[in-house]
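Interim report to the steering committee. The following record documents the input for CGGC domain protein (118 residues).
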Amino acid sequence: MIKIGTLTCLHSNNVCARVGCLKAFQNRSDFFDGYSPDTLLGAMMTCNGCKSVNPKEPDVDEEILEKIDRLVSEEIKVVHVGACRLDREKKECPRIAKICEMIESRGIQVVRGTHRES
């Protein structure tokens, strides 16, 4: 059994109920294909917001560092990042990209994707 998690954009909370991510995980479809039935979804993390809401860069944001420490202590092995990491031009949010780097530096694999966009 392994424990995995998700990372999503705080701003996406305004329009997203995480239904697509959870459905893909439960069905082991899309980016969750290949996980065994005993895989646990052990964490659902958001960033701490855009610069206009949170002026701290992720690498000095104590709350982000605490979240990543918690992923490690909970033995999360993989974090899947939702499509909300992309802007309208399909460019990845630089804050999400930095958080992904920070997660990877702690030995946790990052997969950019949860479910296919419709």
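The first helix runs from residue 19 to 27. The committee is asked to note this result when reviewing the revised timeline.
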